Amino acid sequence: xxxxxxxxxxxxxxxxxxxxxxxxxxxxxxxxxxxxxxxxxxxxxxxxxxxxxxxxxxxxxxxxxxxxxxxxxxxxxxxxxxxxxxxxxxxxxxxxxxxxxxxxxxxxxxxxxxxxxxxxxxxxxxxxxxxxxxxxxxxxxxxxxxxxxxxxxxxxxxxxxxxxxxxxxxxxxxxxxxxxxxxxxxxxxxxxxxxxxxxxxxxxxxxxxxxxxxxxxxxxxxxxxxxxxxxxxxxxxxxxxxxxxxxxxxxxxxxxxxxxxxxxxxxxxxxxxxxxxxxxxxxxxxxxxxxxxxxxxxxxxxxxxxxxxxxxxxxxxxxxxxxxxxxxxxxxxxxxxxxxxxxxxxxxx
Length: 349
Hints:
three-stranded antiparallel β-sheet, globular
């Protein structure tokens, strides 16, 4: 299994384990056409079930009680593309945190270390209530990690697969759009907006995670590293058309990815998902999505044009994140929905 397949398998596992048992296999089959990836995800889920049943468990790389600087490991939360994420306790300030590590086999990889530090710099520059707070980069005994806010909630992946109430979709979408607008105002593009990177707390409050792929861009839209260094980055199913062509991502790329997420939450269906990654990439680049109301008649007709505009193939035709937030704000005000942080009507299971 290649590194790319392993990363894909972990992402699918993290998403699938949050779903009810009867929805896991259908989700895995729809999300990947790679039999090796599917088999790996199923094995990981079986290991998780054994853990819950008291059987043999997967040994964590860092045991509970391990000290990393002033932080004490509490438990493992997940594995991402770079390494493990642990819950930990800041012994000096007495607060819980999340520690995101580069895997031990990759500590010597300068590219991954640079990516980790870039994530910390990008996120720490964004002091926004809907963006996870980054505290510091920790280096201790050969380990490198980011200490960040620990979010108690579920990723939006948990809510994909069936149409969500419109109040949720508009409320969640408004908060993510506000977070992106704040990032774009600082010339920072996330480049990997997807359900797994958006957490929702039990009170409906949104936190955008993982600015590891974010890169500060010039006002002209070009990457600081130059066009020649552009590489395919992100998650295929949520890429913009320009990202599938390995072209530079811009703020409009984030809006397209958010459009896919909101479409999926509003209808229960991904607008471009096909039987193979190649066909999915082709659909993102060339296929026009069906209007959301065609799949969910309860979707407000005033929001159909917004989602379709977010999914425009031409980046220049998409609204800005600020415009998306304003439109959803107007929609919520028109129907009398409370705005976050008056989150009472957004409580989620």
